[in-house]
From TrEMBL:
Name recorded for this polypeptide: 4-hydroxy-tetrahydrodipicolinate reductase
GO CC terms, sorted: cytosol
Subunit comment: Homotetramer.
Organism encoding this protein: Flavimobilis marinus
Location of the Dihydrodipicolinate reductase N-terminal domain: 5-110
Sites where the protein binds NADP(+): R35
Gene giving rise to this polypeptide: dapB
Family matches, as CDD domains: DHDPR_N (cd02274)
Binding sites annotated in the UniProt record for (S)-2,3,4,5-tetrahydrodipicolinate: H138, G147, T148
Localisation per UniProt entry: Cytoplasm
Database matches in Pfam families: DapB_C, DapB_N
Pathway where it operates: Amino-acid biosynthesis; L-lysine biosynthesis via DAP pathway; (S)-tetrahydrodipicolinate from L-aspartate: step 4/4
Enzyme Commission (EC) number: 1.17.1.8
């Protein structure tokens, strides 16, 4: 890569895409070389742009094909779109194995406060008997639970498993639909409410005590430092990276 990183944005006309374009244009070490939207020919646009990094903020049904198209165009890829199932990730890892040096960074959340909250929740989970996650978003969000909440719950479950903890206590015998989604044994509750942007609470409990970790994103600009960090770092991380925490030196 040159000193100035050339960036193409997929989903450029969307709420997040528009904000990403503005952030890239304002960064002195980045250059916005393509704005690509749903009606455009993605392959042709990326071929013409010769981007170093492609940022995908589209929709779950399109993101996998977009990433493979971007890799074929010779770019690294930063992904903020959810919908990445284990099967999709496996296919992506197979593709990257044939492309030495190429990197893809998929982040369930680009908010620095959100990543810190997820990391703290995973570190704290082994000390508590109970753990649940509540995620709250605007009603235009198409998936539930959110990718952030799934990532948080999976990290909590992994930490609890490594510590030898069993399932959280729960005597529920009926009405399981009111208990939220089950993500690796951790209950996740989704709220969709007008006026919200993106928010998450992790509830951790022991007899006589409770730890609440809450993160609030009030505006999409809060995600931009994380997006720009990913754009700058992805070229130095060949293969697949899932989670912004891996480029934040949190260890």
């Amino acid at each position: 890569m040159t000193d100035v990183i050339k960036v193409a944005v997929l989903g450029a006309a969307g709420r997040m895409g528009t904000t990403v374009c503005a952030a890239v244009e304002a960064a002195p070490d980045l250059a916005l070389v393509a704005r690509v939207d749903a009606t455009d020919d993605v392959a042709a646009a990326l071929r013409d742009a010769s981007a170093d990094v492609v940022v995908d903020f589209t929709v779950p049904s399109a993101t996998e094909a977009n990433v493979h198209t971007a890799l074929a165009a010779g770019a690294h890829v930063v992904v903020g779109t959810t919908g990445w199932t284990p099967e999709r990730l496996e296919r992506l890892e197979e593709a990257l194995a044939a492309l030495p040096g190429r990197g893809v960074l998929i982040a369930p959340n680009f908010g620095l406060s959100a990543v810190l909250a997820m990391t703290l929740a995973a570190k704290a989970a082994r000390f508590f008997e109970s753990a649940e996650v509540i995620e709250l978003h605007h009603p235009d969000k198409v998936d539930a639970p959110s990718g952030t909440a799934r990532h948080t719950a999976a990290a909590i479950a992994a930490a609890r498993g490594a510590a030898g903890l069993g399932p959280s206590p729960d005597a529920t015998e009926s009405g399981f639909d009111a208990r939220g989604a089950d993500v690796d044994g951790v209950r996740v509750h989704a709220v969709r409410l007008r006026g919200l942007v993106a928010h998450e609470e992790v509830l951790l409990g022991n007899p006589g005590e409770q730890l609440v970790i809450r993160q609030d994103s009030f505006d999409r600009t809060s995600f931009m430092p994380g997006v720009l960090l990913a754009v700058r770092k992805v070229g130095g991380r060949p293969g697949l990276t899932v989670g912004l925490e891996h480029v934040m030196d949190l260890d």
